[in-house]
Amino acid sequence: MASVPNNRFTQDEARRDADHVSFLKYRRYRWLWIAVILSIITALGYAFIDQDPRPNGGSWYGYTLGTIGLGLIVWLSLLGVRKRRISEGQWSLKAWTSAHVYLGLALIVVGTLHTGFHSITWNVHWLAYFLMLLVIFSGAYGLYVYAKLPTTLSAGRREMTRGDMLEELSTTDRQLDAAAQPLDREQADLVIAALGQDIFSGGAFGRLTGAYPGCKTARALSGFDENGSDTEQRVHRLLSQRADQLGLIRRNLRTKALLEVWLFIHIPATIALLAALLVHVLSVFYYW
Ligand code: HEM
Ligand code: HEM
């Protein structure tokens, strides 16, 4: 019988996982199909329409692809605005996000065909192109962490909010404080250092990698013998409990950091892309 709750746990996790990126399956992958069809039609056009003297952004077909690409990019950029206005129905946020992902990926095809596979030169046209790829790949990475998030948060544990985790930690800290009273100076200092450590320190590096090499709790733990005196054993047990609780909080912080960090690329790169495209379009019209 003991396996029943476990099974439910796994099922719950699976459901939450699916829910988190369920927009991908919106209306039986409607937007995936639209994106695939758009890619096929534009690729067939590229293969069969005679572009004189050779395929490039300046032929009529090149202009068509460029215009579709620009239209898509402007529309995709509006997701930020749309996200802040919630509604249900045909154009729910779910539909928007689904379309966002698939049409965003289709841009790889449309944008690349538009360039006519000219050799890469370092100018504003190619800057626009690479910014577009940067936005797309950062988006794909964001999607990946979205899909990973729920499992990492509840790995092997019951569901806990960050508040619950901090509360458990402060209970352990009170017990540690009391248990450490009989210790000699040197060992007491180790415990005091662990208790005095700011659990949110470690900087961006610690948050993103989950590595905290200077962790004072880990250092204190190594100063106690788990087979030593009663006091030592008790402090050792409480310190390792503290290390586990810190580990959980840090995993939680790491997941949150990973979930946000890509947006620091996705959003600024979108703005840079729009600026580069404006210059690209103005410059081609200027030299026309
Ligand atoms: C998805 C958005 C777009 C991207 C990423 C993009 C990028 C590029 C790139 C990389 C080239 C090749 C430059 C070269 O051969 O060295 C190019 C060419 C060109 N693009 Fe775009 N473009 C986009 C949208 C547009 C739009 C909306 C227009 C005009 C309405 C446009 C007009 C042109 C023209 C006329 C060329 C040919 C320039 C030449 O051969 O010198 N593009 N584009
Ligand atoms: C050039 C194409 C793209 C542009 C211009 C673009 C732009 C944006 C913008 C402006 C946001 C709103 C961010 C915010 O305000 O929080 C956003 C969100 C997002 N984008 Fe993109 N994006 C593009 C392509 C992609 C691609 C290809 C993917 C995935 C494969 C993707 C995945 C996402 C995700 C998952 C979000 C967050 C949605 C949410 O928070 O609910 N994007 N994008």
What do you see in this structure?
By secondary structure, the protein is mainly α. The protein has two domains: 13-155 and 261-286, no CATH class; 162-258, no CATH class. Helices cover 75% and strands 0% of the residues. It has twelve helices and no strands. It has helices at residues 3-20, 26-48, 60-77, 79-83, 93-115, 124-153, 162-179, 185-196, 203-209, 216-222, 230-261, 263-286. Residues 1-18 have low confidence and may be disordered. One protoporphyrin IX containing FE (HEM) binds at residues 56-58, 62-63, 66-67, 69-70, 73, 111, 114-115, 118, 121, 125-126, 128-129, 132, 277, 280-281, 284. One protoporphyrin IX containing FE (HEM) is lined by residues 56-58, 62-63, 66-67, 69-70, 73, 111, 114-115, 118, 121, 125-126, 128-129, 132, 277, 280-281, 284.
Which of globular, elongated, flat, extended, rod-shaped describes the shape?
A: elongated
The number of distinct β-strands equals: 0
The molecules bound to the chains, other than polymers, are: protoporphyrin IX containing FE
Q: Which secondary-structure class do the elements indicate?
A: mainly alpha
Q: Biggest sheet, in brief?
A: none
Low-confidence stretches: 1-18
Please state the average pLDDT score: 86
What is the radius of gyration computed over CA atoms, rounded to a whole number of angstroms? 27 Å
Which structural traits does this protein have?
single chain, 2 domains, mainly alpha, 288 residues, binds protoporphyrin IX containing FE
